């Protein structure tokens, strides 16, 4: 059978860095990249968790994988991580800039806009925006040095494109508490779209494509009230499952999207369609 088009999705021998790799979505992203053939650099805050998950990937997909601790908001930590990935795997072909912070202090993170502290705002921005910039900067420079081009995917959120509807949070329960969508989250995720378009426009001539993956709400233990209120807003009438984000990532990472850059690939069950 002719497999001309199928081969466009092949990531065999390519090296991918995934930040926020041991989180709810990050694990599926790493598995998807490995299943399509990539060597995966598993990057997150905790070296032990990264190493253990990389071992699992190697075992399950028979591809090289390795874990690297990195705080994406710290330039030195980022440059050290990029050097270590280069030493381990050689050229870097794919970056999935995916880390985001929910903050250790959930009361501060979920505070109302009127009472939100600038300290908390800056803490979140330092990961969600500074971190995206720092990792894209270091990996983009490396891709240009290599002369190979590459694909950079940055995880935004549907709440970076449209606002959340505060009514869906009435009676919500998640992470052991009532939740909401803080302004800093929407603002940081909108900034990811701006950065994506800027980098796409500026690095296209170096063969580097930069796109945003834009997920909407993923089911991960929210209570029934939240799930049903959220689902009522969605044409497909349900939340997403983590695996439903992976096809979009593989498409953007691979040559299947070789003429796509500066794009926001929205995976939202239709939430933003009406
Ligand atoms: N889950 C959803 O419903 C949803 C919806 C839309 C967008 N997103 C976006 O998808 C991405 C992944 O989300 P998730 O649900 O897997 O979140 P998650 O909180 O489960 O994972 C985020 C990961 O980032 C890591 N991280 C936090 N600060 C870091 C830092 N300074 N340096 C390095 N790593 C750091 C965390 O340790 C964690 O493993 C995020 O960018 C998020 O904003 C998620």
Report on this model:
The protein has 274 residues and is α/β, with parallel strands linked by helices. The chain has a single domain, classed as Rossmann fold. It has 8 helices and 7 strands, in the order βαβαβαβααβαβααβ. The chain has a 7-stranded parallel beta sheet with strand order 3-2-1-4-5-6-7, sandwiched between helices. Bound molecules: nicotinamide-adenine-dinucleotide. The site of nicotinamide-adenine-dinucleotide has 25 residues, from helix 5.
What key attributes describe this structure?
274 residues, alpha/beta, Rossmann fold, seven-stranded parallel sheet, binds nicotinamide-adenine-dinucleotide
Instruction: Name the CATH superfamily assignment.
Output: NAD(P)-binding Rossmann-like Domain
Report the order of strands and helices: EHEHEHEHHEHEHHE
Multimer state: single chain
CATH architectural grouping: 3-Layer(aba) Sandwich
Low-confidence stretches: none
Strand order of the main beta sheet, please? 3-2-1-4-5-6-7
Structural class category: alpha/beta
Overall domain count:
1
Global geometry: globular
**In the CATH hierarchy, what is the class?**
Alpha Beta
Which helices and strands occur, and which strands form pairs?
Blueprint: E1 15-19, H1 26-35, E2 39-44, H2 47-61, E3 65-69, H3 75-89, E4 94-97, H4 106-109, H5 118-146, E5 150-155, H6 183-203, E6 208-215, H7 224-231, H8 246-253, E7 264-267
Parallel strand pairs: 1-2, 1-4, 2-3, 4-5, 5-6, 6-7
